[in-house]
């Protein structure tokens, strides 16, 4: 029974008291009055009445039973608090059992169906319908939506939503909730001096409480007589409306959580993405299996009738183009995935393309192979051109690739093809389960916005356009109003490049361009942008021309293409990939849009149809449909397919002038931002299927001073520069979320740009500078560059000192310091030094800093040695299974769990709890994790053979959403569900056995499998087919790593060979054998591991004799570290930290070393005594190292005794040692590799010189 003596929280108590002390007493149902009736008689009467009413629950209406119950107990209300409690509880029970609404009578399956529909509606962005169904069903109370409505003061909607879950008089909690809401509404009306509205609220909303507390109601009424209700003593500390709502909301949440009517309604069930569609697809697969003559490629076009491969009586299914259920265009990643993503069927292509169905004014009658769309539920087959481009027969001259054919022995067809949903498609008889996901998938708070000034950069001229590198999150491109191009590393504050505008080949330019440059040589950058892989960037100038550079890392940029693109200014530039070919899209003052080949510069398409200069372009794709949105200065929006057949769209943009368009990061939502000639600015969201404005965002001043720029991030937030501020919006809320003035240094309409992860925001300032804003993750990212900044600063200081003693030219100074100094045509002939924030100064400007720099040189760097348990934080993970050696170890991608594979083929999963000591739920040494098992007690155990398990090579790979693990231990490959530990399927029985597994980064249906027989099999899980077999190694495969930007797969083998394979045709591009140091002989079968750097261009190679850094394009060895003595213990494993700034290396003597990844210098050594017991055997050492995916200074070790240890530095240190300064070691630019063809003596000399130059010895 509920205890009514619960001390309900008082809204706005303390310094923000909003009401009299009398209000702190919970509102009573009735005044107490004397009772003379015998208590025993009352108790018996209540018992009989309750029994009668519960028995009659199926035959009497809820209102009738409630009326009888009140009449039976009316004379005792208020006299006995326990009886009052009993009535409240009884009412709740009767209401739950009687079926107040039709949903209350639902079975558990019907109830779960409602949750599936809620998830479906939420994923399809039917926000209003979602909340309507939540309210009508009363199954899930969306606290986030409730909070938003309270913050916005939508009181009618607040009460309407609440009414689906409780009424005013249900219990004391409910009464208190409604009272606080109506009281706040009343006070806000008084605060606005809206007396008529206040009276209306008093009479209609608050009078209901008068019967419970007449004195309180009188005092509320008296507030009408005051000029300012704050004259009331108890309301004197009432703040503004916003703060009052926030304080009230805290108390409302407490009341809701305490209210028994909301029990089990505040948490949405844990569901896999698109669960309803998955179930539908499973039903279709089942129906197809029941067909008498099942076709291999069924064409299922409707859900209205059961599927049958042969339509009876010649009936035809409804056309997908006219089927309202299927819609016009499937959603992309992050939205509503194709049904085919969950099933094995291959479709037939649609005969008529239906891209942007609602936006096509007059779609052409002819079909376009590159722009066709298939019915819902099935992916479109590859077009004939693609098939011809990648033949099934092996090309001549490439014996390394074993292309399979239809009758190949390597293609093992099954009755029930396997796959994983989303990541890898699940088999039809499996119900996917994942870790918890919220009802609204993108749950971010305003604190996730980058609002803290972290860097200040001095560009020197006004930034007009900026763009962050898509892979290297701290590399920023800047184009300015004088045509300059700047390339910044915002982590180190270093300007890597500064280039002035210059025509590369003036003689090849058109006469209009040459004439324009002679008349007015001033040129501005209109747009600068990176290609999707970050290997190219394009610059659109205000006069005719587009320049494209190739980027090779650091300060290495090279001229790639120069295109005389348009007559007049080139207003925008973008990259797109029609037909999987990288292209450049431009638009200009000549009213045209043009598409150019990004490799050759050849023009591919020209789109004409605008009646005014084209202001912006926005290429995009939906499934296999590639298209371009364009906007012109007359406010027209048009959409084009790559077919030269004219535009498909002709709509008006708000403002009718300068408009830009952008999609959310997942490509599911389209936005535009525009400013009219009168200065009125608009940000809107578009309904693509109808070509209509779906939502208009508020918060702009009536007349913006300049054209407003905007950007999107995290699929959740919008940002725009206006009114000397940065304004942020939640995509689902039209009101301004928050604003930032960036220390008051902004122009009226600043330029802005988010990095890819939304952790950094670049903002232009009025003093020709750039402010880098960061959130907590961004600040953490930038802090990783502090050591690097320290080293570069000292290097610059040393160069300045030498320059003053013996003046050098600018070029010589740059070479001496290995720092790029910028020289321009406008620069003076005096020597220039590049400062850390990129500003250029004469040498004399830095003289006062010499003393400080020289003093720094006297500081002696010392290697950080950790030998005691008190010198670091370590945690041994407990287990009860006593497994043998830990052979494989990996953190889950979310960072909340650690997965190990032991040599006995058993998997161990430790999960960290979320509690007061660990609010994030992430892995930490402060809180021990739990060895997790499902309720069934099942273990994830791999298939094994009769062979010795110690000799088997275990391997596993984890899906990106942590839902599935693919694993093998010498036997068949097994697919496990990480939540239930169930074996979903097994395949590929040995021989040969699998020795390494790697998921394709973009399609987890594709798996690269390294084999014991030295081959690599490219396996498609969904169709259960080996697509290609790669041959090039001579011993078993020991490492595989994909690079999506480079479209390559790097493999390593026990033969100490590295191979690079192209992922388009799976051909071998290049190979190289490791350089084994002299005097060190590896074992007969020595593992070689590979792992890509965060830049996806370089990769780490780990061998028992060395660690090395290679560049994937040319397979050049950039750096190499070798233990000094040939008798030193071998390396057992190594891995990058999550930010690729550190390398964790373990050795067979149980030592762990932490290297600086930038220069391969040791900065911390962790001795075994720091984490192992004193009496441990010398045979115990780490076999594998795993780095935390989010915390760069946390790693875990898997040991030979079956133990797993997690290590972190002390909280006071926060990191593993300090990188050695430049003067204590070799320059960071030194290549730690002997020249090709060097003799053995030269190599020995090189190794000794390199070790001596490093200033340290790993083993003594």
Automatic annotation (TrEMBL):
GO BP, one annotated term: reproductive structure development
Region listing for Disordered, in residue ranges: 1217-1244
Keywords: Repeat, WD repeat
Each WD repeat, start to end: 563-606, 1030-1071
Stored SUPFAM superfamilies: Peptidase/esterase 'gauge' domain (SSF50993), Putative isomerase YbhE (SSF101908), WD40 repeat-like (SSF50978)
Bias kind Polar residues: ranges: 1225-1244
Domain CTLH positions: 139-197
InterPro entries: CTLH_C (IPR006595), LisH (IPR006594), Topless_fam (IPR027728), Topless_Znf (IPR048419), TPL_SMU1_LisH-like (IPR054532), TPR1-like_2nd (IPR054080), WD40/YVTN_repeat-like_dom_sf (IPR015943), WD40_repeat_CS (IPR019775)
The protein's name: Protein TOPLESS
Organism of derivation: Apostasia shenzhenica
Lineage of producing organism: Eukaryota, Viridiplantae, Streptophyta, Embryophyta, Tracheophyta
């Amino acid at each position: 029974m509920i205890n009514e003596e619960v001390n309900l929280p008082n809204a706005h108590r303390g310094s923000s008291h909003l009401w009299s002390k009398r209000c702190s007493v919970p509102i009573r149902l009735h005044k107490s009055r004397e009772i003379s009736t015998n208590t025993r008689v009352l108790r018996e009467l209540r018992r009989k009445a309750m029994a009668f009413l519960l028995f009659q629950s199926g035959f009497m209406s809820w209102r009738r039973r409630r009326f009888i119950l009140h009449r039976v107990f009316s004379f005792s209300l208020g006299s006995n608090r326990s009886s009052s409690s009993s009535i409240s509880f009884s009412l709740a029970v009767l209401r739950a059992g009687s079926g107040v609404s039709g949903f209350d009578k639902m079975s558990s399956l019907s109830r779960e169906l409602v949750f599936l529909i809620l998830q479906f509606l939420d994923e399809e962005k039917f926000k209003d319908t979602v909340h309507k169904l939540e309210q009508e069903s009363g199954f899930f109370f969306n606290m986030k939506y409730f909070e938003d409505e309270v913050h916005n003061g939508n009181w009618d909607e607040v009460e309407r939503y609440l009414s689906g879950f409780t009424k005013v008089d249900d219990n004391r909690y409910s009464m208190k909730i409604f009272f606080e809401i109506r009281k706040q509404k009343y006070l806000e009306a008084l605060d606005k001096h809206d007396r008529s509205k206040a009276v209306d609220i008093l009479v209609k909303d608050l009078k209901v409480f008068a019967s419970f507390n007449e004195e309180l109601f009188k005092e509320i009424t008296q507030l009408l007589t005051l000029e300012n209700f704050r004259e009331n003593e108890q309301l004197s500390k009432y703040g503004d409306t916003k703060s009052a709502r926030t304080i009230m909301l805290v108390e409302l949440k407490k009341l809701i959580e305490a209210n028994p009517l909301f029990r089990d309604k505040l948490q949405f069930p844990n569901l896999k993405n698109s669960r309803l569609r998955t179930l539908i697809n499973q039903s279709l697969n089942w129906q197809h299996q029941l067909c008498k003559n099942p076709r291999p490629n069924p064409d299922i076009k409707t859900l209205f009738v059961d599927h049958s491969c042969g339509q009876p009586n010649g009936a035809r299914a409804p056309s997908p183009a006219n089927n309202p259920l299927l819609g016009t265009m499937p959603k992309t990643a992050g939205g509503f995935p194709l049904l085919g993503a969950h099933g094995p069927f291959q479709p037939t292509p649609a005969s008529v393309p239906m891209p942007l169905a609602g936006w096509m004014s007059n779609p052409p009658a002819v079909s376009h192979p590159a722009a066709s769309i298939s019915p819902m539920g099935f992916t479109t087959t590859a077009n004939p051109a693609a098939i011809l481009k990648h033949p099934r027969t092996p090309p001549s001259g490439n014996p390394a690739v074993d292309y399979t054919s239809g009758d190949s022995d390597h293609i093992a067809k099954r009755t029930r093809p396997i796959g994983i949903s989303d990541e890898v498609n699940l088999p039809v008889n499996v119900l996917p389960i994942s870790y918890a996901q919220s009802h609204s998938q993108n749950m971010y708070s305003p604190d996730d916005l980058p609002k803290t000034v972290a860097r200040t950069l001095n560009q020197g001229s006004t930034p007009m356009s900026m763009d962050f590198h898509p892979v290297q999150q701290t590399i920023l491109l800047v184009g300015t109003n004088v045509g300059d191009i700047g390339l910044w590393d915002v982590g180190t504050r270093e300007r890597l490049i500064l280039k002035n505008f210059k025509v590369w080949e003036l003689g090849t330019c058109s006469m209009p361009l040459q004439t324009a440059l002679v008349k007015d040589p001033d040129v501005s950058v209109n747009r600068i942008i990176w290609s999707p892989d970050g290997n190219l960037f394009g610059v659109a100038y205000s006069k005719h021309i587009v320049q494209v550079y190739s980027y090779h890392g650091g300060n290495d940029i090279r001229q790639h293409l120069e295109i005389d693109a348009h007559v007049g200014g080139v207003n925008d530039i973008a990259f797109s990939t029609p037909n999987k070919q990288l292209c450049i899209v431009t638009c200009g003052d000549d009213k045209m849009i043009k598409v150019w080949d990004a490799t050759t510069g050849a023009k591919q398409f020209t789109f004409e149809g605008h009646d005014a200069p084209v202001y912006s372009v926005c290429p995009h794709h939906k499934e296999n449909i590639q298209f371009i949105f364009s906007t012109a200065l007359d406010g027209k929006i048009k959409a084009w397919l790559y077919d030269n057949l004219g535009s498909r769209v002709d709509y008006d943009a708000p403002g009718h002038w300068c408009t830009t368009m952008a999609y959310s990061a997942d490509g599911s939502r389209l936005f535009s931002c525009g400013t009219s000639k009168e200065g009125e600015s608009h940000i809107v969201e578009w309904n693509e299927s109808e070509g209509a404005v779906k939502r208009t965002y508020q918060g702009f001043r009536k007349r913006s001073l300049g054209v407003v720029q905007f950007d999107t991030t995290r699929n959740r937030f919008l940002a725009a520069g206006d009114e000397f501020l940065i304004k942020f919006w939640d995509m689902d809320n039209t009101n301004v979320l928050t604003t930032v003035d960036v220390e008051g240094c902004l122009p009226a309409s600043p330029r802005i740009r988010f990095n890819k992860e939304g952790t950094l925001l670049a903002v232009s300032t009025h003093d020709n500078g750039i402010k880098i804003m960061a959130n907590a993750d961004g600040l953490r990212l930038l802090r990783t560059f502090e050591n690097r900044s320290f080293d570069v600063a000292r290097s610059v200081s040393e160069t300045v000192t030498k320059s003053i003693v013996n003046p050098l030219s600018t070029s010589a100074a740059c070479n001496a310091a290995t720092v790029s100094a910028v020289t321009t045509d406008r620069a003076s002939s005096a020597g220039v030094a590049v400062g850390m924030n990129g500003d250029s100064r004469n040498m004399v400007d830095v003289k006062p800093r010499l003393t400080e720099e020289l003093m720094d040189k006297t500081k002696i760097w010392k290697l950080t040695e950790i030998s005691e348990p008190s010198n670091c934080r370590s945690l041994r993970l407990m287990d009860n299974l006593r497994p043998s050696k830990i052979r494989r170890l990996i953190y889950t991608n979310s960072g909340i769990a650690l997965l190990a594979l032991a040599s006995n083929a058993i998997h161990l999963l430790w999960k960290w709890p979320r509690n007061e000591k660990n609010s994030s739920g992430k892995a930490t040494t402060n809180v021990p994790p739990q060895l997790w098992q499902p309720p069934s007690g099942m273990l994830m155990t791999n298939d094994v053979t009769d062979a010795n398990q110690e000799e088997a090579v275990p391997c596993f790979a984890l899906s990106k959403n942590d839902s599935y693990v693919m694993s093998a231990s010498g036997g068949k490959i097994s697919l496990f569900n990480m939540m239930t530990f169930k074996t979903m399927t097994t395949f590929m029985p040995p021989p040969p056995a699998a020795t390494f597994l790697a998921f394709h980064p973009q399609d987890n249906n594709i798996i690269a499998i390294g084999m014991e027989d030295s081959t690599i099999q490219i396996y498609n899980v969904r169709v259960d087919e080996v697509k290609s077999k790669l041959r090039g190694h001579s011993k078993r495969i020991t490492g595989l790593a994909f690079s999506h930007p480079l479209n390559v797969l790097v493999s390593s083998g026990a033969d100490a060979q590295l191979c690079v394979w192209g992922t388009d045709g799976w051909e071998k591009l290049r190979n190289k054998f490791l350089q084994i140091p002299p005097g060190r002989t590896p074992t007969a079968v020595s593992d070689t591991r590979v792992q890509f750097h965060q830049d996806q261009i370089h990769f780490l190679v780990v061998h028992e004799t060395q660690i090395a850094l290679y560049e994937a394009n040319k397979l050049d060895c950039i750096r190499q570290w070798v233990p000094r003595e040939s008798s030193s213990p071998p390396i057992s494993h190594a891995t990058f930290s999550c930010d690729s700034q550190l390398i964790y290396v373990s050795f067979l003597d149980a030592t762990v070393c932490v290297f600086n990844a930038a220069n391969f210098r040791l900065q911390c050594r962790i001795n075994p005594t720091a984490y192992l017991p004193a009496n441990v055997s010398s045979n115990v050492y780490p076999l594998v190292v795993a780095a935390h995916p989010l915390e760069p200074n946390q790693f875990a070790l898997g040991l030979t005794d079956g133990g797993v240890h997690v290590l972190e530095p002390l909280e006071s240190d926060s990191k593993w040692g300090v990188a050695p300064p430049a003067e204590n070691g070799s320059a960071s630019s030194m290549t730690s590799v002997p020249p090709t063809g060097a003799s053995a003596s030269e190599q020995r000399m090189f190794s000794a010189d390199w070790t001596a130059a490093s200033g340290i010895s790993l083993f003594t």
